[in-house]
Amino acid sequence: MADVVHAFAVPIHPSSVGLARTELRDVLRPAAQPVALVEDAVLVLSELVANALSHARPTRTDDIGVEVRLVGDRLHVAVTDGGSDSVPEIVSAPGVRPSGRGLFLVGALSDRWWWESAEHGRTVRAELRCPAATE
Known about the structure:
The chain is α+β, with helices and mostly antiparallel strands and 135 residues long. Helix content is 31%, strand content 30%. It has one domain (18-76, 87-129): Heat Shock Protein 90. The chain has helices at 16-28, 35-55, 102-109, and strands spanning 4-11, 63-71, 74-81, 112-118, 121-129. The two termini are 15 Å apart.
């Protein structure tokens, strides 16, 4: 299987979560990955974009950057936003709060996730292991 690297941007708008999901499915479809992996990656990306919309400042270009890398047996998903004053962290017990579960889901569905400072903001990354397409 050939490596896949795809970058795109979505606007700072609630519809961006759906746009990002559609784009990711379109990118992964030709790579013949299992449906479960694609859907896990779609949920991870949805949560990362939603967090960027809810918690981050806009980027200098007023968008959210997304990068997808399918390299070997690893799928990397990254979302770059304008950063914020808070640090991304998993809420240990969100309880009945209407929000706060996004990074919990990201952590549960990915093998690892992390964040790093970007030139003009912050990038949050997640990595998922790709089972063989025949599984």
